């Protein structure tokens, strides 16, 4: 079995190029899966060049995987700098639609399955709110550690959320013109000042309303049945996404079918998973990866 990787580039604007990583078996004809990373990271959370990770795992089972890098992240160019004025509104209205259009162009049909990590799930549901016509294109979703607002009260949440994200990050963004999260070891990629500001507002339990045009995402989704969503929680994900945080996100994400499973040894799994290793640990393929595969097949 040969897993092939190749890069697909999308000219978004005169000075912006988006990157998609296509991962599949040679001559695979299976349905396409669209992957969306979270804040201060890029698409590498889903794969390595040596074919480790969730995207290569699904590719082994016949899926054609497309892993996105939002503008400025990963292999999208140019990298984030003080000159980057875009934020999550642009990701929702421009970047993600451009990725989906390219996948449809290459595969001849839409991406039938969507997968997100962390804030990527918020972006995906925001896209469903803005473009409800996409809902019928998607058969099922899998969200790993995705929440909108932080409701948990773990001490580490007050360090990573309140102290760093709400306190220090705005100061750093003001000084540098962006959040150099990679240099500060706050994440695997940087964040624009606007994107940080917008995500910070939503993470603070403020209304799910766009700061650019006041679009009310929660209201738009209130009566919508989104594709079936499998939520993955990790027992060691104490600061960034506890079950209470996921439950609150589920409550404001429409009336469709949603389920949550917590992954850890006390629940019969091989590892006590955290926010990152729920996607990067070698044992994940025997726990949440195979469960996601079954979820997709159940909703095929």
UniProtKB/TrEMBL annotation:
InterPro entries: AB_hydrolase_1, AB_hydrolase_fold
Keywords: Hydrolase, Lipid degradation, Lipid metabolism
Record GO terms (molecular function): hydrolase activity
Keyword ATP-binding in annotation: no
Ranges for domain AB hydrolase-1: 31-138
Database matches in Pfam families: Abhydrolase_1
PANTHER family reported in the protein's UniProt record: LYSOSOMAL ACID LIPASE-RELATED
UniProt-recorded name of the protein: Alpha/beta hydrolase
Organism for this UniProt entry: Pseudoalteromonas gelatinilytica
């Amino acid at each position: 079995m040969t897993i092939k990787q190749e890069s697909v580039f999308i000219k978004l604007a005169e000075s912006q190029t988006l990157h998609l990583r296509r991962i599949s078996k040679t001559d695979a004809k299976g349905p396409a899966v669209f992957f969306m990373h979270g804040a201060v990271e890029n698409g590498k959370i889903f794969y390595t060049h040596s074919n480790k990770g969730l995207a290569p795992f699904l590719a082994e089972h016949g899926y054609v995987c497309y892993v996105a890098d939002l503008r400025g992240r990963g292999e999208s160019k140019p990298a984030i700098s003080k000159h980057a004025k875009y934020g999550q509104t642009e990701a929702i209205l421009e970047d993600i639609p451009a990725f989906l259009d390219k996948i449809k162009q290459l595969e001849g049909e839409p991406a039938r399955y969507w997968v997100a990590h962390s804030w990527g799930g918020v972006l995906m549901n925001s896209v469903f709110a803005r473009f409800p016509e996409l809902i019928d294109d998607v058969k099922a979703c899998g969200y790993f550690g995705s929440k909108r607002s932080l409701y948990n009260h773990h001490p580490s949440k007050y360090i990573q959320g309140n102290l760093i994200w709400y306190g220090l990050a705005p100061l750093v963004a003001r000084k540098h013109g962006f959040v150099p999260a990679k240099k500060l070891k706050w994440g695997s990629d940087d964040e624009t000042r606007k994107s940080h500001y917008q995500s910070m507002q939503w993470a603070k339990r403020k209304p799910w309303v766009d700061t650019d045009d006041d679009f009310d995402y929660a209201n738009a989704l209130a009566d919508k049945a989104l594709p079936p969503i499998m939520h993955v929680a990790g027992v060691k994900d104490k600061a960034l996404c506890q079950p209470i945080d996921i439950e609150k996100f589920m409550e404001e994400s429409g009336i469709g079918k949603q389920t949550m499973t917590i992954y850890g040894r006390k629940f019969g799994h091989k590892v006590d998973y955290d926010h990152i290793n729920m996607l990067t640990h070698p044992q994940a393929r025997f726990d949440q990866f195979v469960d996601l595969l079954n979820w997709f097949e159940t909703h095929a």
